[in-house]
Amino acid sequence: MSIPEGTRELAKFAANLKHDDIPPQTRARAIDLLVDQIGVEIGGSDMPWSTQVRDAFTKANSTPGEATVVRYGDRLPIAAAAFINSAFGHSFEFDDANPLIHGHPGSELVPSLMAVAERDHVSGRNFLTTFIAAYEVRGRIGWAASASMASHLGPQFSSAYGPFGVAAGVGRLFGLSADGIRNAMGIAGTYSGGLMQYNRGGGSVKRIFSAVAAESGIQAAQLAQAGITGPEQILEGERGVLKLYAPEYRPEILVAELGTKWTIDSVSFKPYCCSAVIHPAIEALKRVLTQHDINASDIEAIEVYYPARSIGSAAIATPADLLGMQFSTSFSLALTATAGNNTPREYTMTALNDPNVRTVASRVSLHEDAELSKASRGHFVARVKVKTHSKGTHEALVTDAKGTPGAPLSTREIDAKFSSQVADVLGKARCAELLRVLRDIDNCDDVSKVSTMLVKTD
What we know:
It contains 21 helices and 6 strands. The protein is α+β, with helices and mostly antiparallel strands.
């Protein structure tokens, strides 16, 4: 069977997509994602590692500014501004996920495209069309690799595949032809990678994985614009990214139903700020605790059953920092049992060292479930069994956690999440006005007007 020309077809798609080609529901989902990402960028902009990233880049850049740093208003070159804003957006595991394609395309793409759109005074309509085109390029690559990448040792989806989507989107905003975008994608292959030891050993560097995709994708497009060329078939070729990274891969997915099936329709919005694979376990535990009126002190054991591909991303047993805690099923479920929720308010160093949290965490065990593995494609799945001292044993199965395509957050819920991240920073009135403008991005004549609204003024 011949290999489909996936790279060339995706480049053509990115160059030629028209606003009217996109179904209304897909445009609406993209706007939901824009709102969610801008919200978590602002909300995560004061995390310790966020301010460290900002300090590193502002000290290193004295070049006249082109794009705005969210909240703080620094003016930096587009790649530096995109890196910082992307780090903000991915700063606390509260940004989007996607069970079909994996990684965090929103925090890869929105900061990158916003920076270029601000500098070049792009219309909101062009920005939104480009965002959806770039998401589809990025999505198709992740989808083609998803059969096995999620259970492999790496690399990480955002840093491995994000540069291609960013390069395609930025190349389109630069006005590159389809062949120019193909070159940008070919160059992006030089930047593709990202080790996943963070979900074993913690560390704050994971916070910049989407930012690596943002910066490197912009640089790839800039190099293509300047005339540097990339190899053919960077995705599907003999030494392309799919064959290199994915033990199993399906190159035909790169082009199958392209323009008919949209990967952004499978986006997942996080109500909990931890690894997305833990979300169904949280939902299942909540269901058991609520239905049977079980208190944390009555829990004897919690058994969590995951598909094979999920365990490796959520198995840190004794986290040493907050990143480790967010990739720890045991500590995340301990928060669910003791604090009743899993939002940024609950994931703190105080909670990490709380004896009550640690006691419940020590009672959690993880198990692989072959049947769940069969049902997990395109879903985040978990079964939780709770043994109690006084109320017997109960279990629940969740195949569609809240926020995933099977149980989506409504627009109202996404807006409420946005407000919970933004109102305390910008004030309620400015938060409401920003939300109104983002929801009407199709009618914005210049995205630079939006960027000015993202800065704290007092």
